[in-house]
Specification:
single chain, mainly beta, eight-stranded antiparallel beta sheet, five-stranded antiparallel beta sheet
Length: 438
Protein backbone atom coordinates (compact mmCIF):
# COMPACT_ATOMS: atom_id res chain seq x y z
CA UNK A 1 0.00 0.00 0.00
CA UNK A 2 2.86 2.36 0.85
CA UNK A 3 4.51 1.81 -2.53
CA UNK A 4 1.24 2.29 -4.38
CA UNK A 5 0.54 5.56 -2.58
CA UNK A 6 4.07 6.76 -3.26
CA UNK A 7 3.84 5.84 -6.94
CA UNK A 8 0.55 7.73 -7.22
CA UNK A 9 2.19 10.78 -5.67
CA UNK A 10 5.14 10.60 -8.05
CA UNK A 11 2.91 10.39 -11.11
CA UNK A 12 0.64 13.19 -10.01
CA UNK A 13 3.42 15.47 -8.83
CA UNK A 14 5.17 15.00 -12.18
CA UNK A 15 2.13 16.56 -13.84
CA UNK A 16 2.87 19.83 -12.01
CA UNK A 17 6.50 20.17 -12.97
CA UNK A 18 5.88 22.46 -15.94
CA UNK A 19 2.80 24.30 -14.75
CA UNK A 20 3.41 28.03 -14.58
CA UNK A 21 1.19 30.89 -13.50
CA UNK A 22 0.98 33.86 -15.92
CA UNK A 23 2.75 36.76 -14.27
CA UNK A 24 0.28 39.34 -15.55
CA UNK A 25 -2.62 37.35 -14.10
CA UNK A 26 -0.98 36.44 -10.81
CA UNK A 27 -1.68 39.83 -9.28
CA UNK A 28 -5.42 39.34 -9.61
CA UNK A 29 -5.56 35.64 -8.87
CA UNK A 30 -7.27 35.72 -5.49
CA UNK A 31 -9.97 33.12 -5.88
CA UNK A 32 -9.26 29.48 -5.30
CA UNK A 33 -8.76 27.58 -8.51
CA UNK A 34 -9.60 24.16 -7.21
CA UNK A 35 -13.13 24.09 -5.79
CA UNK A 36 -14.70 20.92 -6.96
CA UNK A 37 -12.00 18.30 -6.57
CA UNK A 38 -13.26 14.76 -6.68
CA UNK A 39 -11.53 11.49 -6.27
CA UNK A 40 -12.74 8.24 -7.75
CA UNK A 41 -11.22 4.81 -8.01
CA UNK A 42 -11.20 2.57 -11.05
CA UNK A 43 -9.39 -0.65 -11.77
CA UNK A 44 -5.70 -0.72 -11.06
CA UNK A 45 -4.00 2.60 -11.58
CA UNK A 46 -6.61 5.32 -11.97
CA UNK A 47 -6.57 8.77 -10.49
CA UNK A 48 -9.17 11.45 -11.11
CA UNK A 49 -8.19 15.05 -10.68
CA UNK A 50 -9.88 18.33 -11.41
CA UNK A 51 -8.31 21.38 -13.01
CA UNK A 52 -10.35 24.52 -12.59
CA UNK A 53 -9.33 27.68 -14.44
CA UNK A 54 -11.54 30.18 -12.62
CA UNK A 55 -8.44 32.22 -11.72
CA UNK A 56 -7.12 32.42 -15.29
CA UNK A 57 -4.58 29.77 -16.16
CA UNK A 58 -5.30 28.70 -12.62
CA UNK A 59 -3.15 27.24 -9.94
CA UNK A 60 -3.11 23.46 -9.66
CA UNK A 61 -2.73 22.03 -6.21
CA UNK A 62 -2.20 18.62 -4.73
CA UNK A 63 -2.74 17.06 -1.33
CA UNK A 64 -0.88 13.79 -0.75
CA UNK A 65 0.71 12.33 2.37
CA UNK A 66 4.40 11.58 2.22
CA UNK A 67 5.36 8.11 3.46
CA UNK A 68 9.14 8.22 3.02
CA UNK A 69 10.15 10.70 5.71
CA UNK A 70 12.49 9.53 8.47
CA UNK A 71 10.29 8.45 11.40
CA UNK A 72 12.59 10.12 13.92
CA UNK A 73 12.73 13.43 12.09
CA UNK A 74 9.02 13.30 11.30
CA UNK A 75 8.19 12.69 14.93
CA UNK A 76 10.27 15.69 15.98
CA UNK A 77 8.71 18.06 13.47
CA UNK A 78 5.19 16.78 14.18
CA UNK A 79 5.54 17.86 17.81
CA UNK A 80 5.90 21.49 16.77
CA UNK A 81 2.46 23.10 17.27
CA UNK A 82 0.78 23.77 13.94
CA UNK A 83 3.54 22.19 11.88
CA UNK A 84 2.60 18.53 12.03
CA UNK A 85 1.47 18.60 8.40
CA UNK A 86 4.81 20.04 7.26
CA UNK A 87 6.07 16.45 7.46
CA UNK A 88 4.18 15.90 4.20
CA UNK A 89 6.26 18.57 2.49
CA UNK A 90 9.74 17.74 3.68
CA UNK A 91 10.28 14.56 1.69
CA UNK A 92 9.72 16.42 -1.57
CA UNK A 93 11.39 19.75 -0.74
CA UNK A 94 14.84 20.08 0.82
CA UNK A 95 14.26 23.79 1.34
CA UNK A 96 11.37 23.11 3.71
CA UNK A 97 13.56 20.67 5.64
CA UNK A 98 16.21 23.38 6.00
CA UNK A 99 13.56 25.84 7.19
CA UNK A 100 12.61 23.42 9.95
CA UNK A 101 16.24 22.85 10.90
CA UNK A 102 16.80 26.61 11.13
CA UNK A 103 13.46 27.17 12.90
CA UNK A 104 12.60 29.79 10.30
CA UNK A 105 8.88 29.88 11.06
CA UNK A 106 6.48 31.54 13.47
CA UNK A 107 3.95 29.86 15.69
CA UNK A 108 0.64 31.75 15.85
CA UNK A 109 -2.03 29.40 17.27
CA UNK A 110 -4.86 31.89 16.82
CA UNK A 111 -8.37 30.41 16.87
CA UNK A 112 -11.67 31.96 15.77
CA UNK A 113 -15.10 30.33 15.83
CA UNK A 114 -17.97 31.26 13.54
CA UNK A 115 -21.25 29.40 13.11
CA UNK A 116 -20.38 25.69 13.33
CA UNK A 117 -16.77 26.08 12.19
CA UNK A 118 -13.58 26.64 14.14
CA UNK A 119 -10.50 27.98 12.32
CA UNK A 120 -7.01 28.03 13.80
CA UNK A 121 -4.09 29.78 12.11
CA UNK A 122 -1.32 27.56 13.43
CA UNK A 123 1.89 28.97 12.00
CA UNK A 124 3.45 30.74 9.05
CA UNK A 125 6.63 30.68 6.99
CA UNK A 126 7.26 34.00 5.23
CA UNK A 127 9.86 35.39 2.87
CA UNK A 128 9.99 37.85 -0.02
CA UNK A 129 8.65 35.24 -2.45
CA UNK A 130 5.46 34.67 -0.46
CA UNK A 131 4.16 32.66 2.49
CA UNK A 132 2.95 29.27 3.60
CA UNK A 133 0.17 29.56 6.19
CA UNK A 134 -0.70 26.41 8.13
CA UNK A 135 -4.26 26.19 9.44
CA UNK A 136 -6.71 23.78 11.05
CA UNK A 137 -10.45 23.77 10.29
CA UNK A 138 -12.78 21.86 12.61
CA UNK A 139 -16.51 21.16 12.77
CA UNK A 140 -18.93 18.74 14.41
CA UNK A 141 -19.82 17.29 11.01
CA UNK A 142 -18.07 15.95 7.92
CA UNK A 143 -16.12 18.69 6.12
CA UNK A 144 -14.08 16.49 3.78
CA UNK A 145 -15.69 18.18 0.76
CA UNK A 146 -16.22 21.67 2.16
CA UNK A 147 -15.12 24.17 -0.51
CA UNK A 148 -13.57 27.56 0.03
CA UNK A 149 -15.35 30.49 -1.62
CA UNK A 150 -12.60 33.07 -1.16
CA UNK A 151 -9.09 33.66 0.10
CA UNK A 152 -7.54 37.04 0.77
CA UNK A 153 -4.67 38.41 2.79
CA UNK A 154 -5.08 42.05 3.77
CA UNK A 155 -2.05 44.29 4.24
CA UNK A 156 -2.28 48.06 4.76
CA UNK A 157 -6.05 47.80 4.34
CA UNK A 158 -5.82 46.34 0.84
CA UNK A 159 -5.91 42.78 -0.51
CA UNK A 160 -2.43 41.47 -1.18
CA UNK A 161 -1.67 41.23 -4.89
CA UNK A 162 -0.97 37.51 -4.88
CA UNK A 163 -2.08 34.09 -6.00
CA UNK A 164 -3.20 31.47 -3.50
CA UNK A 165 -3.23 27.70 -3.58
CA UNK A 166 -4.56 25.13 -1.15
CA UNK A 167 -6.00 21.63 -1.18
CA UNK A 168 -8.41 21.41 1.72
CA UNK A 169 -9.89 18.06 0.75
CA UNK A 170 -9.79 14.66 2.38
CA UNK A 171 -10.27 11.30 0.71
CA UNK A 172 -12.22 10.06 3.72
CA UNK A 173 -14.95 11.64 5.87
CA UNK A 174 -13.47 13.85 8.58
CA UNK A 175 -14.42 16.74 10.82
CA UNK A 176 -10.85 18.12 10.93
CA UNK A 177 -8.89 19.50 7.97
CA UNK A 178 -5.22 20.33 8.48
CA UNK A 179 -3.87 22.12 5.45
CA UNK A 180 -1.70 24.97 4.24
CA UNK A 181 -2.30 27.99 2.03
CA UNK A 182 0.56 28.88 -0.28
CA UNK A 183 0.84 32.56 -1.14
CA UNK A 184 2.67 33.47 -4.36
CA UNK A 185 3.68 36.96 -5.48
CA UNK A 186 5.06 37.98 -8.85
CA UNK A 187 7.30 40.67 -7.38
CA UNK A 188 9.15 40.91 -4.07
CA UNK A 189 6.74 40.92 -1.13
CA UNK A 190 7.04 43.90 1.20
CA UNK A 191 7.23 43.46 4.97
CA UNK A 192 7.47 47.12 5.96
CA UNK A 193 4.15 46.45 7.64
CA UNK A 194 4.19 43.01 9.27
CA UNK A 195 0.52 43.09 10.29
CA UNK A 196 -1.84 41.03 8.14
CA UNK A 197 -5.43 39.79 8.12
CA UNK A 198 -6.30 36.39 6.70
CA UNK A 199 -9.79 36.29 5.18
CA UNK A 200 -11.35 32.92 4.33
CA UNK A 201 -14.85 32.09 3.11
CA UNK A 202 -16.46 28.64 3.01
CA UNK A 203 -19.42 27.23 1.12
CA UNK A 204 -21.30 25.80 4.07
CA UNK A 205 -24.99 26.46 4.67
CA UNK A 206 -24.23 29.80 6.33
CA UNK A 207 -21.50 30.85 3.84
CA UNK A 208 -19.23 31.26 6.84
CA UNK A 209 -16.46 33.84 6.65
CA UNK A 210 -13.41 34.32 8.87
CA UNK A 211 -11.19 37.34 9.40
CA UNK A 212 -8.11 36.58 11.52
CA UNK A 213 -5.40 39.18 12.18
CA UNK A 214 -1.82 37.97 12.56
CA UNK A 215 1.53 39.67 12.91
CA UNK A 216 5.06 38.55 12.16
CA UNK A 217 7.58 39.08 14.92
CA UNK A 218 10.75 37.57 13.48
CA UNK A 219 12.91 39.23 10.80
CA UNK A 220 12.13 38.18 7.24
CA UNK A 221 15.13 36.89 5.30
CA UNK A 222 16.25 38.90 2.28
CA UNK A 223 16.18 37.20 -1.12
CA UNK A 224 19.57 36.78 -2.78
CA UNK A 225 19.57 37.92 -6.42
CA UNK A 226 22.12 36.93 -9.07
CA UNK A 227 22.03 38.53 -12.52
CA UNK A 228 23.31 36.06 -15.12
CA UNK A 229 22.17 37.03 -18.66
CA UNK A 230 23.83 33.97 -20.21
CA UNK A 231 22.71 33.06 -23.71
CA UNK A 232 22.71 29.37 -24.58
CA UNK A 233 21.88 27.34 -27.69
CA UNK A 234 20.39 23.84 -27.53
CA UNK A 235 19.67 22.02 -30.78
CA UNK A 236 19.64 25.33 -32.64
CA UNK A 237 17.17 26.98 -30.23
CA UNK A 238 18.26 30.08 -28.33
CA UNK A 239 17.35 31.06 -24.81
CA UNK A 240 18.83 33.32 -22.15
CA UNK A 241 19.19 32.48 -18.48
CA UNK A 242 18.44 35.91 -17.07
CA UNK A 243 18.72 35.55 -13.31
CA UNK A 244 18.61 33.38 -10.21
CA UNK A 245 16.83 34.42 -7.02
CA UNK A 246 17.08 32.40 -3.81
CA UNK A 247 14.80 32.84 -0.82
CA UNK A 248 14.11 30.41 2.05
CA UNK A 249 10.91 29.02 0.51
CA UNK A 250 12.01 28.73 -3.10
CA UNK A 251 14.64 29.60 -5.66
CA UNK A 252 13.59 30.88 -9.09
CA UNK A 253 15.40 30.73 -12.41
CA UNK A 254 14.17 33.24 -15.00
CA UNK A 255 14.50 32.39 -18.68
CA UNK A 256 13.87 34.36 -21.86
CA UNK A 257 13.06 32.37 -25.01
CA UNK A 258 14.13 33.75 -28.41
CA UNK A 259 11.04 34.56 -30.47
CA UNK A 260 12.89 33.58 -33.67
CA UNK A 261 13.29 29.95 -32.62
CA UNK A 262 11.88 27.41 -35.05
CA UNK A 263 10.64 25.18 -32.23
CA UNK A 264 8.04 25.94 -29.60
CA UNK A 265 9.50 24.98 -26.24
CA UNK A 266 6.97 23.23 -23.99
CA UNK A 267 8.48 21.90 -20.77
CA UNK A 268 11.87 21.60 -19.09
CA UNK A 269 11.72 18.05 -17.78
CA UNK A 270 15.20 18.05 -16.27
CA UNK A 271 16.08 21.27 -14.49
CA UNK A 272 18.14 21.27 -11.32
CA UNK A 273 20.68 23.22 -9.32
CA UNK A 274 23.81 21.39 -8.12
CA UNK A 275 26.26 22.80 -5.58
CA UNK A 276 30.03 22.26 -5.36
CA UNK A 277 29.47 19.16 -3.22
CA UNK A 278 27.18 17.50 -5.76
CA UNK A 279 24.02 18.19 -3.74
CA UNK A 280 21.01 18.61 -6.04
CA UNK A 281 17.94 20.83 -5.80
CA UNK A 282 15.23 20.07 -8.30
CA UNK A 283 11.93 21.64 -9.22
CA UNK A 284 9.08 22.34 -6.82
CA UNK A 285 7.06 19.16 -6.26
CA UNK A 286 4.38 20.35 -3.85
CA UNK A 287 3.09 23.63 -5.18
CA UNK A 288 3.14 26.14 -7.99
CA UNK A 289 6.18 25.55 -10.16
CA UNK A 290 6.61 28.95 -11.76
CA UNK A 291 5.38 32.26 -13.12
CA UNK A 292 5.06 33.72 -16.57
CA UNK A 293 4.35 31.94 -19.84
CA UNK A 294 6.86 30.02 -21.91
CA UNK A 295 4.81 30.91 -25.01
CA UNK A 296 5.12 34.60 -24.21
CA UNK A 297 8.89 34.22 -24.14
CA UNK A 298 9.60 34.91 -20.46
CA UNK A 299 9.12 32.40 -17.68
CA UNK A 300 10.34 31.84 -14.13
CA UNK A 301 10.77 28.30 -12.82
CA UNK A 302 10.60 27.66 -9.07
CA UNK A 303 13.24 25.37 -7.62
CA UNK A 304 13.83 23.91 -4.19
CA UNK A 305 15.79 26.37 -2.10
CA UNK A 306 19.31 25.96 -0.74
CA UNK A 307 19.13 29.33 1.03
CA UNK A 308 20.48 28.10 4.38
CA UNK A 309 23.24 25.96 2.83
CA UNK A 310 25.05 29.04 1.43
CA UNK A 311 26.94 27.20 -1.33
CA UNK A 312 29.95 28.85 -2.93
CA UNK A 313 28.96 27.82 -6.44
CA UNK A 314 25.94 26.37 -8.23
CA UNK A 315 25.59 24.64 -11.57
CA UNK A 316 22.28 24.97 -13.41
CA UNK A 317 21.49 21.89 -15.47
CA UNK A 318 18.92 22.14 -18.30
CA UNK A 319 17.96 19.02 -20.21
CA UNK A 320 15.08 16.90 -21.55
CA UNK A 321 13.44 19.97 -23.09
CA UNK A 322 10.11 19.20 -24.74
CA UNK A 323 9.52 21.02 -28.02
CA UNK A 324 7.43 20.87 -31.19
CA UNK A 325 7.91 22.67 -34.52
CA UNK A 326 6.05 25.96 -34.56
CA UNK A 327 2.80 25.52 -36.44
CA UNK A 328 2.55 21.94 -35.17
CA UNK A 329 2.12 22.83 -31.53
CA UNK A 330 -1.66 23.25 -31.46
CA UNK A 331 -4.90 21.68 -32.61
CA UNK A 332 -7.86 23.46 -34.19
CA UNK A 333 -11.39 22.52 -33.10
CA UNK A 334 -14.93 23.46 -34.06
CA UNK A 335 -16.87 22.67 -30.91
CA UNK A 336 -20.16 23.78 -32.44
CA UNK A 337 -19.89 20.97 -35.01
CA UNK A 338 -17.94 18.57 -32.77
CA UNK A 339 -15.17 18.48 -35.38
CA UNK A 340 -11.37 18.37 -35.28
CA UNK A 341 -10.16 20.68 -38.07
CA UNK A 342 -6.39 20.36 -37.59
CA UNK A 343 -4.24 17.84 -35.75
CA UNK A 344 -0.47 17.80 -36.47
CA UNK A 345 0.84 14.52 -37.86
CA UNK A 346 3.57 14.56 -35.22
CA UNK A 347 0.96 14.48 -32.46
CA UNK A 348 0.30 10.82 -31.65
CA UNK A 349 -2.80 11.34 -29.52
CA UNK A 350 -6.29 9.91 -29.95
CA UNK A 351 -8.78 12.81 -29.94
CA UNK A 352 -12.54 13.21 -29.93
CA UNK A 353 -14.87 16.21 -29.53
CA UNK A 354 -18.10 15.52 -27.65
CA UNK A 355 -21.03 17.47 -26.20
CA UNK A 356 -19.99 20.70 -28.01
CA UNK A 357 -17.63 21.56 -25.13
CA UNK A 358 -15.52 18.54 -24.23
CA UNK A 359 -12.22 17.40 -25.70
CA UNK A 360 -11.32 13.78 -24.96
CA UNK A 361 -7.66 12.86 -25.41
CA UNK A 362 -5.97 9.50 -24.99
CA UNK A 363 -2.21 9.04 -24.99
CA UNK A 364 -0.28 5.80 -24.66
CA UNK A 365 2.29 5.78 -21.87
CA UNK A 366 5.04 3.53 -20.59
CA UNK A 367 4.76 1.38 -17.48
CA UNK A 368 5.74 4.29 -15.24
CA UNK A 369 2.92 6.49 -16.56
CA UNK A 370 5.41 9.28 -17.19
CA UNK A 371 3.18 11.07 -19.68
CA UNK A 372 0.32 13.14 -18.42
CA UNK A 373 -1.65 16.15 -19.61
CA UNK A 374 -1.09 17.16 -23.23
CA UNK A 375 -3.08 20.34 -23.77
CA UNK A 376 -3.02 23.74 -22.12
CA UNK A 377 -5.70 24.92 -19.71
CA UNK A 378 -7.14 27.25 -22.33
CA UNK A 379 -7.06 28.40 -25.92
CA UNK A 380 -7.81 31.19 -28.41
CA UNK A 381 -11.00 31.55 -30.41
CA UNK A 382 -11.42 32.75 -34.02
CA UNK A 383 -11.39 36.40 -32.91
CA UNK A 384 -8.32 36.12 -30.69
CA UNK A 385 -10.20 35.91 -27.39
CA UNK A 386 -8.91 33.58 -24.72
CA UNK A 387 -11.01 30.87 -23.10
CA UNK A 388 -10.27 28.42 -20.33
CA UNK A 389 -11.02 24.98 -19.01
CA UNK A 390 -13.92 24.82 -16.58
CA UNK A 391 -13.06 21.32 -15.37
CA UNK A 392 -10.87 18.38 -16.31
CA UNK A 393 -10.47 14.77 -15.27
CA UNK A 394 -7.70 12.30 -16.09
CA UNK A 395 -7.84 8.52 -15.72
CA UNK A 396 -4.51 6.71 -15.35
CA UNK A 397 -4.82 3.19 -16.73
CA UNK A 398 -2.30 0.39 -17.26
CA UNK A 399 -0.95 1.60 -20.60
CA UNK A 400 -2.63 4.92 -21.36
CA UNK A 401 -4.00 8.11 -19.85
CA UNK A 402 -7.39 9.44 -20.87
CA UNK A 403 -8.29 13.06 -20.21
CA UNK A 404 -11.57 14.89 -20.64
CA UNK A 405 -11.32 18.68 -20.72
CA UNK A 406 -14.51 20.75 -20.48
CA UNK A 407 -14.16 24.31 -21.79
CA UNK A 408 -16.13 27.44 -21.02
CA UNK A 409 -17.23 28.38 -24.55
CA UNK A 410 -20.25 30.56 -23.77
CA UNK A 411 -18.88 33.62 -25.58
CA UNK A 412 -16.37 32.00 -27.90
CA UNK A 413 -16.34 32.09 -31.69
CA UNK A 414 -15.50 28.83 -33.47
CA UNK A 415 -13.11 27.50 -34.64
CA UNK A 416 -10.68 27.66 -31.72
CA UNK A 417 -7.03 26.75 -31.21
CA UNK A 418 -5.80 24.78 -28.20
CA UNK A 419 -2.07 24.72 -27.63
CA UNK A 420 -0.03 21.68 -26.69
CA UNK A 421 1.49 22.15 -23.23
CA UNK A 422 3.44 18.89 -22.95
CA UNK A 423 4.46 16.17 -25.39
CA UNK A 424 7.31 13.58 -25.47
CA UNK A 425 9.27 15.27 -28.26
CA UNK A 426 12.65 16.56 -27.11
CA UNK A 427 15.46 18.82 -28.23
CA UNK A 428 18.79 17.07 -28.68
CA UNK A 429 21.31 17.92 -26.00
CA UNK A 430 21.53 19.61 -22.63
CA UNK A 431 23.55 22.41 -21.09
CA UNK A 432 25.20 23.27 -17.78
CA UNK A 433 25.79 26.82 -16.57
CA UNK A 434 28.23 27.65 -13.78
CA UNK A 435 26.87 30.22 -11.29
CA UNK A 436 29.51 31.64 -8.88
CA UNK A 437 27.81 32.91 -5.73
CA UNK A 438 30.68 34.27 -3.66
Amino acid sequence: MEKEALDNYERYAEALDGIVVPTEQLATARLVGLQRAKRERTRGKQLIWIRNASIVMGILIIFFTSLRISPVFASTVAKIPGLDRVVDLITWDKGIEDIMDQQYFEELNTTVQNNDLSLTVDSVIADESGMIIFYTLEASYDISRLNMSEINIIQNGEPLQAGYSYSGFSADPTNIIKDQIEVHVSESMSYENTNFILELGFKDEQNTKFSIPFALQQPVANTRHYELNKEIIIDGQRLTVQSLSISPLRAQVKLMIDEHNTMQLLQFRDMKLVDEHGEEWGGIRNGVSGTGSIRDGEVGYNMQSNYFREPEQLTLHLGSIEALPKGQDYIEVDFERNELLYVPEKLDVELEVINHRTLRSKIVVDEDLERHTVFATGGIDAEGNQFYISSSGSSYMEDYIETKDDYDLSEMVNPVRIHVSSYPSYLNGSVEIEIPLQ
